[in-house]
Amino acid sequence: MRKLMVAASAAALLAVSSIGAFAEEATGTIESIDTTAGTVTLATGETFTLPATVDAASLQIGQDVTIEYEEGEGGVMTATSVEESAM
Q: I need a surface site. Which of 10, 29, 38, 82 has the fewest CB within 10 A?
């Protein structure tokens, strides 16, 4: 029974830690917006693909934002949320 509890605990810890490993966060000032491609680039040079839930036209150059994103294959960073931040 003890071995089963240890294995279950280890599996639960692994599942929780892997979820957090995929989500990342970037904070910065918007340098450019491409509404056609659905991307936003921060002053740091990082470019993020925006999901359909974020209206690129509602963002403004010079706006400080916090972007939560996931990095996919080929280093493509896809935003999961974009929020105005007070930097």
A: 10
Contact 49, 26 (CB under 8 A): no
Strands 77-84 and 39-42, bridge-based pairing: unpaired
**Residue 58, amino acid:** S
Inter-residue contact 7 to 52 (CB < 8 Å): no
Q: What six digits make up the tokens of 19?
A: 């979820």
- Tell me the chain's radius of gyration from C-alpha atoms: 18
Q: Provide the 8-state DSSP code for 51.
A: P
63-73 pLDDT per residue, tens: 999 999 999 98
- Compute how many other C-beta atoms are within 10 angstroms of the C-beta atom of residue 28: 19
Positive or negative, the CA dihedral 61, 76, 86, 29 is negative
pLDDT for 34 beyond 90: yes
